[in-house]
Structure formats: C-alpha cells, structure tokens
Amino acid sequence: MQERFRNDILTNYNNRTILERWDALALPDGWLVAGCLFQTLWNLQAGRTPEADIKDYDLFYFDGGDLSEEGERSVQARVDEVLLDLGVPIEVSNQARVHTWYESYFGHPYQQLDNARSGIDRFLISATCVGINPNSLYAPNGLQMLYDGILTSNSLTPHIELFDAKVASYRSRWPWLRVMRTVNAPECSN
C-alpha cells in the first residue's frame, strides 16, 4: 500500500516537483505533509484532477536551535524562491516552535515536540497523519483508513470542535468520506 500511496500522490504535479527539488529546500527533518497528500488521493478516487481544490502545500521541518518567527520566515522565503514557479501557496512550519503559538491560535495547549514526525502524529484526523520526503513515508496510523475515507478524531488532539470543522470542510469536497466518532460506532451523517 505504501508504493500505491507514493505513486498516487506523485500524480499531483506540485507534489512531484516539490519532492524533485527537495535537496534545494534544505529542510532539517523535512516532510511534505497534510492535505496536498491525502486530498490528492481523494481527488483521484473521486475522478477529479489530482490538484483540484488543494488550498496549499504544507512542509514541516524541525529546527530546535531557532524557535523564532524570523527564522521560520527565512526558511519560508528560501522555499518560496525554490518553488515560486509552481504558483501555489506553500506553507512552511518549524515543528520545534508550534507549542509557542498553537494555544493562542487554536485555543488548546500543545506540548513541545522533539521532531517533525511528532507534529504529523498530532493532525486532528487519524487517517490524515501522513508525511513523505524522497526517502521515507511516515504514516503512523497506516494508510487503510485514508483509502477507505474514514475520518476519526485523533486521541493526541481530541479537540472536537476543530475536528468537526475540518470534517465539514473535507466532506463539502468529498461527500463520500465517512465520519466515525469511535472505531466501532460510525456517525450517522447526511
């Protein structure tokens, strides 16, 4: 299933180009993450173009030696320069500093992380905890739920109001996705 996932996400020109230019991005503990991956997959399953309705392309990295906004903006500027010709929004986030702003932005505390994969572990929806770089695929909850379109909340970030908002956004574009409040009890949703 990992090979299938890699092949599927590479049908998205932007994902493929980002990974082809990976070395020039120079991201320590770097990962291409989130919607640009699983939304590409869902687009393919829905018979849409791979890039349809993907808001942005997220890159995680981990630099514990620089927790400043300025440092993150400098990395963002370098990434923007390397990927400017893609013409899509690309958001870069130093996972070493998320704990410094998360609560003021989302209203919930966030523990300090030790690596970028720990940020992937904390996506609101378990199936979407996935990241890739040219050498590795990281999917701590596997890929089956993602392919099956099953959305469950993540016990590491049990923020139900944020989960519900995310689910509503996804289901507006991919209505076939199924919400499950627990592994055994699917939600009845219209």
What would you note in describing this structure?
- The protein is an alpha/beta fold.
- The chain is built from nine helices and seven strands.
- It has helices at residues 2-9, 13-20, 22-25, 35-45, 69-83, 102-106, 116-121, 144-148, 160-173; strands spanning 31-33, 57-61, 90-94, 131-133, 136-138, 150-152, 178-180.
- The strands form two sheets. A five-stranded mixed beta sheet has the order 3-2-1-4-5. A two-stranded parallel sheet has the order 6-7.
- The two termini are 30 Å apart.
- The model is unreliable at 183-190 (pLDDT under 50).
Layout of strands and helices, then pairs:
Elements: H1 2-9, H2 13-20, H3 22-25, E1 31-33, H4 35-45, E2 57-61, H5 69-83, E3 90-94, H6 102-106, H7 116-121, E4 131-133, E5 136-138, H8 144-148, E6 150-152, H9 160-173, E7 178-180
Instruction: Supply Rg.
Output: 16 Å
Helix content percent band: 40-55%
- The largest beta-sheet arranges its strands as 3-2-1-4-5
The pLDDT mean sits at 94
- What are the segments in which pLDDT stays under 50 over at least 5 consecutive residues? 183-190
- How many strands, what sense, and barrel or not for the largest sheet? 5 strands, mixed
Q: Tell me the strand percentage band.
A: 5-15%
Span from first to last CA?
30 Å
Which secondary-structure class do the elements indicate? alpha/beta
Helix segment tally: 9
Outline: globular
Order of helix and strand elements from N to C terminus:
HHHEHEHEHHEEHEHE
Beta strands, count: 7
Kindly list the characteristics that best describe this protein:
7 strands; five-stranded mixed β-sheet; 9 helices; alpha/beta; 190 residues; disordered C terminus
